[in-house]
Design goal:
By secondary structure, this protein is α+β, with helices and mostly antiparallel strands. It has two helices and ten strands, in the order H-E-E-E-E-E-E-E-E-E-E-H.
Amino acid sequence: MKRSTLSAAAAALALAAGSAHAVPLVWTLEADFDDGSSASGSYTFDADTGVISDVMVETSDGVVFAFDNTGIGVIGADIYQFVSDSTIVVDETIALNFELLDSMTNAGGTIDIDPSAFLIFGGGTGFSFIGTCTTAICDFVGPPFRELTGVTVTADMEAAIPLPAAAWLFVPAFGAMAARARKKAS
């Protein structure tokens, strides 16, 4: 009877632990501009919810992008927009727009800029540039422009592998099984 109780408890514990849930990944952004300047930094992206947080990207000339405006000012899959101010100030807030070749996922990896996404006004077809917000939601960005000539975003999946939520319950369960085995052996 005791053995079946212990087996049932171990099975219940395993079920309670559940499966590991994906956690948002920290992505690192490295960007180069047509004027020789660059930008680098990181942000967190949760592919399950599509939420970006903890944005901290800075250009080599000191512009800091700490706020996500994706989905508000820019429309389109795999197009992202970070802005310099939490409240957009027309003709002052600076926006960094970039379009990726593939979607960011919870699997991590490295994704490059879409090479056809260079500044529309420079003959390209997309949204990869820095400019100044010309509307209150930054859905239009005006000069001065700096075109992105290369962007790479990278996330390391192995650094973000979580334990199951109830994994700590395994410690006393295995301890109890070890104590029982020691008792039987003596």
